[in-house]
Amino acid sequence: MPICQVCKKREATVFLTQIINGKKTDMYMCRQCAGEGYKIDLNTLISGLLGLSWGDEEIGTATQVACDRCGMTVEEFNRTGKMGCSHCYDVFREPMKVLLKRIQGNTRHQGKVPESYAAAHAAELEVEKLQRELRECIRVENYERAAEIRDRIRQLQSRRGGRQ
């Protein structure tokens, strides 16, 4: 195992590779030295690993957007990984969706649901799917199928107590 290149005393357990202006630098450090001098921003790390940047064509001119309450820019959010105020979530909604979709593959929760809520959640997702299908059937003027879907939606909603 190599020795820490910073303190030259302890065993190196952290391997850091930096690429700055196209120049690659490798460093071996012990846990203490790595913790003292090299704070790694998680947002920057993830963005770097996935090759993401706010300048991608999918995000468009997002770098020019700023929050009208606190002045936070997309560039600042990308650098810090934090929002400036609660209004930033509305201002940066679309850039965040693009980033989340690229990192996680989706912008909707797909994880586990509490068992007591599972049936209601499944019905809710089914209604949403049927509503999309209903809109498509109406768009293509398939009214027979649209009526079947409408009836199925009503049936599911009546089981849930009519909530929408």
UniProtKB/TrEMBL annotation:
Transmembrane segments: none annotated. GO terms for biological process: stress response to cadmium ion; stress response to copper ion. This is Protein arginine kinase activator. InterPro entries: UVR_dom, UVR_dom_sf, YacH. Gene3D superfamilies: UVR domain. It holds the Pfam family UVR. Residues 124-159 form the UVR domain. PROSITE patterns: UVR. The keyword Transferase applies. GO terms for molecular function: cadmium ion binding; cobalt ion binding; copper ion binding; kinase activity; zinc ion binding. Keywords: Kinase, Transferase.
